[in-house]
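Q: Got one fold?
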Amino acid sequence: MNIYVSNLSFNVTDDDLKQFFAEYGEISSAKVITDKFTGKSRGFGFVEMPNDVDAEKAIQGLNGGQVEGRAIMVTVAKPKEERQGSYKVGKPNTRW
């Protein structure tokens, strides 16, 4: 199951994220999303857990928990096509 984690401190690393979830079961991957230009954290990330039961326990156990003084939000990640409000900025039409 893919898990979305938001409201992370900008100091949280991939390893930190993995450690938060490790007590709940096996972690396939843990990634804090960074700005592609600055390399700084964008304050959210994703954790992949192969066992859905463990993932549900992690969501219940960590949602609303305090990490570096911030209450994190932990939910099931939605596939890209289901997200609302996302848009893609394209190259302007330059054919005149």
Summary: Helices lie at 14-22, 52-62.
